[in-house]
Amino acid sequence: MSDPETPLLEMGNVSKTFPGVKALQDVSLTLGRGEVLALLGENGAGKSTLMKVLGGAHKPDLGEIRIEGKPIEIHSPHESQAAGIAIIYQEFNLVPGLTAADNIFLGQEKTRAGFVRRGEERRKAAELFERLEIDIDPDELCRNLTVAQQQIVEIAKALSLDARILVMDEPSAALTTREVDRLYAVIRELKAQGIGVVYISHRLDEIFEVCDRVSVLRDGKNVGEKPVVEVTRRSLIEMMVGRELKDEFPARDSHIGEPKLEVNGLSRGKAVQDVTFNVRAGEILGLTGLVGAGRTETVRLIFGADKRDSGEVKLDGKELKIGSPSDAIRARIGLLTEDRKLQGLVLPHSVRDNFALPNLDWLSRLGFVKRKEERESFGGYVDSLKIKIPHQEQAAKNLSGGNQQKVVLAKWLARNCEVLIFDEPTRGIDVGAKYEIYCLMNELAAKGKSIIMISSELPEILGMSDRILVLHEGRVTGEIDDVKNATQEQIMDLAVK
């Protein structure tokens, strides 16, 4: 029997180099039984590389891995699973057309005489869900499950493999507040069962809610490891970015002008019901509410991505006829979508091509792209927005979240948009890149641009908005003008009306 004092997992002095990049430099990590370890760091800090070493996707150049004190070598994901390690990525590895039970036992089917023993699989799946204290029908297709339920299927799959070490990468990114609370309860249950959890998240409030200890990486190196009770939100941010951060949100002197965008009686079914508001020149209007409140649906109607049942949109007093996104673009309205990977970028294409897509009307002539002008224009934004790319031919899929967001922003800035809609602008982005995005938004507002910012993070809404609009079930339930004295409780009270 193993010594209870021996760490469940030890990764010692791990190094990994890719062509031209030292991804990990002498990194060490320990995880105890029944412990939740927060692994933090900016995009590019080495978190994903370290976990891919643990998961068998990358072979380290140097270093060792020990499980319960015994050194092991992991050369493949299969060997990682066999060692009791399971990694739940932000993008789930589930087959939508298969049932929950089928997904749990995919690749490890229980058979008799060549036939899958489906009854036994359903029974064991039900036992796993009961162990997690979650009621999910094993026969339900995964495509019909909520994101939170799909996440539980992934956790059940890990438990079916007798995983003792569970890595969770941004587990709360797409969950509602209630679902996040349920996730915390599941993690506490896993802790009670002696399972060690590595928890990766950019949402620092979660670290204090669910984690026992925190380990911070920066530029591929260990920069700190402490019990959570010994750190603060600010000290964590400073460890991650490597400098003192006086304020999480940059200060700004607001010079707000007359209403620029006016929305009157906007409706679409039950998703958006008689929404009316305005955004003034130089103003950042925060749009918030619980998931499903109608925030994204509202701005999609403004942008012409969905057809509205009724209502009107005016810019500088003139009613706009917006039947499609191209109409909104011509009216100089830009939308940075919630899902930049799916809707904001063509990931296999170069960053320069992505920049050019909504700007081909002035970057082309007689059907041919003016490459020199395209390169020069994009190059200017690469410099001004500090987009970190080795060259303009870099595929968009290979950029960090923060740099992807900057590419999306660059293409709208090139159109000189008067109204910019930011839908969850910092989701999945590290604190350093968040601060840069905030500064860019302030600069745009200072130039008289009107900004609508949708965010589920209430500190962000309070820290960046001049005015806050709260939605619930497709309706506006409140407006907060005195943002400096507003509280999260005040917003939540409006959000659940």
How does this model look, in words?
The protein is an alpha/beta fold. The strands form six sheets. It has a six-stranded mixed β-sheet, with helices on both faces. The chain is globular, with a radius of gyration of 24 Å. The model has no long low-confidence stretch (mean pLDDT 88).
The CATH superfamily of the largest domain bears the name: P-loop containing nucleotide triphosphate hydrolases
Helix content: 25-40%
Total of DSSP H or I helical runs spanning 4+ residues: 18
How many β-strand stretches?
24
What's a concise summary of this model?
The chain has 497 residues and is an alpha/beta fold.
Sequence-ordered SSE layout with sheet pairings:
Elements: E1 9-18, E2 21-31, E3 36-40, H1 47-54, E4 62-67, E5 70-72, H2 77-82, E6 85-88, H3 100-104, E7 111-112, E8 115-116, H4 118-131, H5 147-160, E9 165-169, H6 177-192, E10 196-200, H7 204-210, E11 213-218, E12 221-227, H8 233-241, E13 259-268, E14 272-280, E15 284-288, H9 295-303, E16 310-315, E17 318-319, H10 325-330, E18 333-336, H11 340-344, H12 351-356, H13 360-363, E19 364-365, E20 368-369, H14 371-384, H15 401-413, E21 419-423, H16 431-446, E22 450-454, H17 458-464, E23 467-472, E24 475-480, H18 488-495
Parallel strand pairs: 3-10, 3-11, 6-9, 9-10, 15-22, 15-23, 18-21, 21-22
Antiparallel strand pairs: 1-2, 1-4, 4-5, 7-8, 11-12, 13-14, 13-16, 16-17, 19-20, 23-24
Write a concise keyword list for the protein shown above.
alpha/beta, globular, six-stranded mixed beta sheet, 2 domains, Rossmann fold, 497 residues
